[in-house]
Specification:
The complex is a heterotetramer, with 2 copies of chain A (168 residues) and 2 copies of chain B (162 residues).
Chain A: E1 2-9, E2 18-21, E3 26-30, H1 37-47, E4 77-85, E5 100-108, E6 113-117, E7 120-122, H2 124-133, E8 143-144, H3 151-154, H4 157-167
Antiparallel strand pairs in A: 1-2, 1-4, 4-5, 5-6, 6-7
Chain B: H1 2-24, E1 28-34, E2 46-52, H2 66-83, E3 88-92, H3 100-113, E4 118-122, H4 126-130, E5 134-139, E6 147-150, H5 153-160
Parallel strand pairs in B: 3-4
Antiparallel strand pairs in B: 1-2, 5-6
Classes of the chains: A alpha+beta (168), B alpha+beta (162).
The structure holds adenosine-5'-triphosphate (2 copies) and magnesium ion (2 copies).
Chain lengths: 168, 162, 162, 168
């Protein structure tokens, strides 16, 4: 299984539809302070089913919806599509014959959210099950937030245990 | 499940030792399970990390420097990937506290892993950019609105100013 | 003492606004006192920081980026120095999260303050080294034992690898 | 008042007597990871009267005493001398006629500590009083530890109040 494309619309500072194609190997993202680099990492965490607004660096989940600028109005919805390729073992939802799967997550200002797999509406639980089977699983050590690399070391021993549990 | 836990712990511990050695270029490190009280269940124990950078005495993690802590944490993350590969990994300015030598060692290790795992690395550092297979620049030409452009190394270095 | 507190608050707030403007090259910011409950004592209130980087909407500090947070914090520290100068200040890799432009602006501000306050700055970044009146390199030629040598810019840059 | 010289012996990784002369203006300190840069900043905080081992990145205060290497034995004592020049208003201890004052702090493995001003034994309180008068005062915003610059922003509003109180 590998990441092929991430498409963000109205998510944080990505007001207009913006897409990133991932290569196998190493993709580097650069740019000045405050331009939106960490927002991409937040976007990946969000489309993979993140439930906590705090982990999205916000107070409530609606904080991820583009909030406007001095000249633009806020948008009414945030949407992210993540396309995965060479997905093995995605039998749980009958997607095993597809070699390409697109996960979609939407959030409206009203607080309503939608989840889709290959444009078919589903629940968040279905997305999590799908990811579990493909090894994308939990994101405890697959997404390291800015400034948090040292936290694994400075946290208490019982907090570090989860790393072994993830792997077990 | 106790057996599964112990298998995972032993596997991670073995790989952590070798990964630490190649990231620090010497010294030694290991993981230890610490039961909260005598005789309690192994599943409730905490994970202690013992690290000895090359030439130094064994010391508490608290006394380690900012760069040493980042490198030890990276060694642990890489060890987990070796035991249970994850198809992708996002690293957000993990190389910021590292000096030139450590950035190089860290980058080389990323390259080794990039065969099995897809890495998305947010960075300001030039040596890490040079290793990338694809480079994206994020701009805010229109204030408050992010855009993405695919760049070459030279442009990327200019954007980061290195 | 309530009067003293309010005088200090108003003075810091005024300077914070101007320092923010020159560090960010635009935008606006201010400090607000937030009483914990209605009608409680001003001395018990919390300090809220409101910041609007240039071109962006007013937003919660949580949504700010790593570099923006470091710059806002630096503006607050400098504002305090303007109101109550401290003879010295130690800054340990405060410029690490900043991009090239912001490192320059931050460095220029340090230079302005270095007239009244003595700064001891630990850094990996070349623009900050270039501004220094004295440069020290710390080495561990004997593993585990630190030594200090006075260096020139060229050697310092080599030690930091920039 | 300004800093003139810092002399460390047996403090953290500074096993041998090491001295730093400070210039007016900007002094920059550089070097590879783990070489001892932040230990200098800890040294300044310590000689100015820091009481908490946690703020010295240790578990107990004895952790600041040089702990040995693979080839050197641990030392029995840590000592730091800080020489200040052009000290105004240091009347509280009768030092006003001195233009140069040296503060000394020592800690022995036994846990015993010594404080001296111009080689005259005194209490920690005397050092703190002296510093209060000279404006070096509290160190809340004069020493910013590595990685902590963002903390001023991410802490709770009532925790930030101390900044105003320091100045008041
Ligand atoms: N919902 C939103 N609507 C509009 N803009 C937003 C929203 N959420 C966050 N932002 C903007 O995103 C910016 C932060 O972006 P991000 O954290 O990705 O920066 P960065 O590129 O990682 O910078 P650094 O190099 O400093 O870490 C903030 O300045 C904020 O204005
Ligand atoms: N009591 C002690 N005895 C001997 N060595 C010590 C003692 N306390 C700390 N150290 C050593 O000091 C080192 C850390 O130094 P310091 O934190 O100053 O590094 P640094 O130069 O700031 O590095 P970085 O660039 O990574 O932040 C540790 O590796 C540790 O070995
Ligand atoms: Mg960021
Ligand atoms: Mg340091």
């Amino acid at each position: 299984m590998r990441f092929h494309k991430l498409e963000m619309t109205g998510f944080k500072s990505f007001a207009d539809k913006t897409s990133v194609t991932f290569e196998p190997g190493l993709t580097a993202v650069v740019g000045p302070n405050g331009c939106g680099k960490s927002n991409i990492s937040d976007g990946i965490r969000w489309v993979l089913g993140e439930k906590s607004a705090k982990n999205m660096r916000g107070e409530k989940m609606e904080d991820v919806i583009f909030n406007g600028t001095e000249v633009r109005k806020p948008t009414g919805m945030a949407e992210i599509n993540l396309t995965l390729q060479d997905v093995e073992g995605a039998d749980s939802l009958g997607f095993s014959e597809f070699k390409e799967i697109t996960i979609t997550r939407r959030l409206y200002r009203s607080g309503e959210s939608e989840y889709l797999i290959n444009k078919i509406p589903c629940r968040l639980k279905d997305i999590r099950d799908l990811l579990m089977d493909t090894g994308v699983g939990s994101r405890a050590y697959s997404i390291i937030e800015q400034g948090k690399i040292g936290q694994i070391i400075t946290s208490k021993p019982e907090e570090r245990r989860f790393i072994i549990e993830e792997v077990a | 499940s106790e057996e599964l836990f112990m298998d995972a712990f032993n596997a991670i511990n073995e790989t952590f030792k070798t990964v630490f050695l190649s990231l620090f270029g010497g010294g030694r490190a290991e993981l230890q399970l610490v039961p909260p009280e005598e005789g309690s269940d192994v599943l409730d124990s905490g994970l202690e990390i013992v690290a000895q950078p090359p030439g130094k005495k064994l010391q508490s993690l608290l006394l380690c420097s900012g760069g040493e802590k980042a490198l030890i944490a990276a060694a642990l993350v890489f060890a987990c990937f070796l035991v249970k590969p994850s198809p992708f990994c996002v690293l957000d300015e993990v190389d910021a506290p590292l000096d030139e030598n450590n950035v190089q060692r860290f980058g080389n290790m990323l390259k080794d892993f990039a065969g099995k795992t897809q890495f998305i690395v947010i960075t300001h550092s030039r040596p890490t950019m040079e290793l990338a297979d694809a480079l994206y620049g994020v701009t805010m030409d229109e204030p408050g609105v992010s855009r993405l452009v695919s760049v070459r190394l030279k442009e990327a270095a200019e954007m980061a100013g290195v």
